[in-house]
């Protein structure tokens, strides 16, 4: 049996940033648990069609949901096979399942998709009546979309094999990995807690074994830990540090994400011991009242500054992320963020930064609030408007959540963008030099 996996992607934007790691984990799980199944991850739809699979799985985030629908329609014109949708969008808004898909997988997909593949392998099709017995699914029914209930999460997380890599046509495959799933926090703008339900970590042993495999197979020297939050449990970080000293094939230069309110001298020491030289840190705002809203009173601008100071003292470069457009954010709040950002770039506390608009993604509290205000709804069709990619931001289509006029928000956004572009260009020049 052949299973084709695809990531929904706007063809007008060929510059993909990350390897679709979720599909890579799905492939390794299927090949370990379903006999006689061949799984292939394709960068292009035409390649998948030529392969003539028996089942197609497509993963989509919200801005690329229209592309997932378009891909499904095209597949239907060429192949009479079941189509399954997965990813953050369908998990956050299961009632949006298009007619072109047989089913949607909600949340963690390995076991759910395994059962779906087994159904298709047995009967060659995917009937709604059969799907009723598969937990973690949304499917079509005469009365509308039917949910079968969430599936228990995989435990322990180490049961999941290392992700399948070495996919033809997909570059930079060894650069990314995950050491955990989910996040123990619930920021209003983030759908991670909804998607993963709880925070689970791979063991220190799993982490070092995977990195050693990547060193052996791809000769890596730099690596990005893609966890939503890497340094949570310092005991595990201490254990990883010990295994790295004894068993890691070579020291690696790592990048990882942390939270400002968790940064301590001990954490910084451990991060340096495991080779983390760059930290991505969600600073979000220089205004306490905006931070209180976005991060549920877990940090302040002063605490964020203390975190940056500690990282600098330990020789760790920080890349801060910021969010513009919170519901209460006025020009004074934006001015505070601007001053915070400029000061830390000037002193070197920030090596670089990213920013984006606050977007009401399905599965977040921001979406729930925006729906209550009538700004978004379940029958929404302009999903590409919910895009945080700076390179393609469209102010005219952006759903305004804050009190500023579109014109004034655009002025502030442009101000931050110009600074971001200046910093990015300077870094690129340094790398080329």
Report on this model:
- The protein has 433 residues and is of the alpha/beta class.
- 40% of the residues lie in helices and 15% in strands.
- The strands form 3 sheets. Strands 2-1-3-4-5-6-7 form a 7-stranded mixed beta sheet, with helices on both faces.
- α1 crosses α5 (110-123) and α8 packs across α9.
- The longest helix is centred in the C-terminal third of the chain and has 27 residues, at 406-432.
Mean pLDDT: 92
Runs in which pLDDT lies below 50 for 5 or more consecutive residues are: none
How many helices? The count is 15
Give the neighbour order of strands across the main sheet. 2-1-3-4-5-6-7
Largest sheet data: 7 strands, mixed
Instruction: Write the H/E string, N to C.
Output: EHEHEHEHEHHEEEEHEHEHEHEHHEHEHH
Rg (C-alpha, Å): 22 Å
What is the topology?
Layout: E1 2-7, H1 21-33, E2 38-42, H2 45-51, E3 55-59, H3 65-78, E4 83-86, H4 88-92, E5 103-105, H5 110-123, H6 128-131, E6 137-139, E7 146-147, E8 176-177, E9 180-181, H7 192-196, E10 200-201, H8 204-218, E11 222-225, H9 234-247, E12 253-258, H10 265-274, E13 276-284, H11 288-294, H12 301-313, E14 317-324, H13 331-346, E15 352-357, H14 365-372, H15 406-432
Parallel strand pairs: 1-2, 1-3, 3-4, 4-5, 8-11, 11-12, 12-13, 13-14, 14-15
Antiparallel strand pairs: 5-6, 6-7, 9-10
Helix pairs in contact: 1-5, 8-9, 9-10
